[in-house]
């Protein structure tokens, strides 16, 4: 078994608590659905947001999901690069799995698909 990183990103339309929490759940559920793992398989989840999203901690949404209460979570700010994608939530899910690197599916939703068009269509 190996530990693999699974990337994901989603954009939101507004810096509002419910919008951020809902998008975080949608993104994590998308990652789980295509990669078929459970919270017990997770080593940790890193969550980053762009500086324009400060209405809440996105990790709150994950902690409230059934079975995810004990998964280690960390939130931080994305590096503020001029001209970069705005209102974006990113996840790095470290999962213990027998899947090979080529079997891992990364998930990009909304305008975040522009971040990795090479992976968005997989």
Automatic annotation (TrEMBL):
Keywords: Amino-acid biosynthesis, Aromatic amino acid biosynthesis, Isomerase. PROSITE patterns: CHORISMATE_MUT_1. Signal peptide: none annotated. Its EC number is 5.4.99.5. The keyword Amino-acid biosynthesis applies. NCBIfam families: CM_mono_aroH. PANTHER family: CHORISMATE MUTASE (PTHR21164), CHORISMATE MUTASE AROH (PTHR21164:SF0). This is chorismate mutase. It comes from Cohnella pontilimi. The gene is aroH.
